[in-house]
Write a structure and sequence with these properties.
Low-confidence stretches: none
Distance between the termini: 29 Å
Structural class: alpha/beta
Number of helices: 9
Strand order of the largest sheet: 3-2-1-4-5-6-7
CATH class of the largest domain: Alpha Beta
Oligomer: single chain
Mean pLDDT: 95
Radius of gyration: 18 Å
Number of strands: 7
CATH topology of the largest domain: Rossmann fold
Helix content: 40-55%
CATH superfamily of the largest domain: NAD(P)-binding Rossmann-like Domain
CATH architecture of the largest domain: 3-Layer(aba) Sandwich
């Protein structure tokens, strides 16, 4: 299927590895020019080298996208589209797990800033231009915990749920929806990423079990009996960015191998 997005410009956050890289890769395969962003320059440069093999323009900006200075660097990168992106994929690493009794105000502010306010700032900077041009796709990578909260991920549950509520309203405004601008959230479950491995290592260290045993036990809780692959997540993202997905907006698309047992 031709997704109808060849030649467009995309911004993808957290794109040096994991789910962000999967999204950037799938978009580049569709002929999309991509500005990839992450904090670590070395890993980001390696990702850019790999993505350029797909034949589109790839610009790498090693900044902290949660800061105003970082976002200004993205808008002004040489050869980029300024703020005139056709596609924006917001993605920031989740805050650490823990017991809510131990979190201070600064912990909450940091979580909300990265996982709620930063995506909102990116939406605010780009969405009106999308509406004027008659095409726009914004994808927020959140978490399956928005649907099924996990007690030790309270910082993530709170911040990402706030973003979800905001998107539910703004995505349905007539100025955007009637001008072919969609905003959707992608909710990943357990994917084979460094973050998942880090979480399992923490569990292994805490329980004394081998990390392989932790991984197998986690897989058994998933009807698909496996972890997801970043590339298949990226392909889902690319479809939501497609011309064919123009009638989908304000949605929360759960990709978790069937782990969430609810009807809605």
């Amino acid at each position: 299927m031709d997704l109808g997005i060849k030649g467009k410009w995309a911004l993808v956050g957290g794109a040096s590895k994991g789910l962000g890289f999967g999204c950037a890769q799938s978009l580049a395969r569709e002929g999309v020019n991509v500005v990839i962003v992450a904090r670590g320059a070395e890993a980001l440069d390696a990702a850019a080298t790999e993505l350029r093999k797909l034949g589109t323009t790839i610009l790498a900006v090693a900044v902290d996208i949660t800061t105003e200075q970082g976002r200004e660097a993205i808008w002004s990168v040489a050869g980029g589209p300024g703020k005139n992106f056709d596609i924006v994929v917001t993605n920031a690493g989740g805050p650490p797990p823990g017991d809510f009794r131990n979190w201070e105000r600064d912990d909450w502010i940091k979580a909300v800033d990265a996982n709620m306010l930063t995506p909102i700032e990116l939406i605010k900077a780009t969405v009106d231009g999308m509406a004027e041009r008659g095409f726009g796709r914004i994808i927020n990578i959140t978490s399956s915990a928005v649907k099924a909260p996990i007690d030790i991920l309270g910082l993530s549950n709170g911040a990402r749920s706030g973003l979800t509520g905001f998107v539910a309203g703004v995505a349905r405004t007539q100025k955007l929806a009637a001008n072919n601008v969609t905003i959707n959230n992608l909710l990943p479950g357990a994917y084979d990423t460094d973050r998942l491995k880090g979480t399992m290592k923490g569990a292994a260290d805490k329980t004394g079990q081998p990390i392989e045993a932790i991984a197998e036990a986690r897989k058994r809780t998933i009807p698909a009996q496996r972890f997801g692959h970043p590339q298949e997540f990226g392909d889902t993202c690319a479809f939501l960015c497609s011309a064919q997905a123009g009638y989908m907006t304000g949605q929360n698309i759960l990709t978790d191998g069937g782990a969430y047992a609810g009807t809605f």
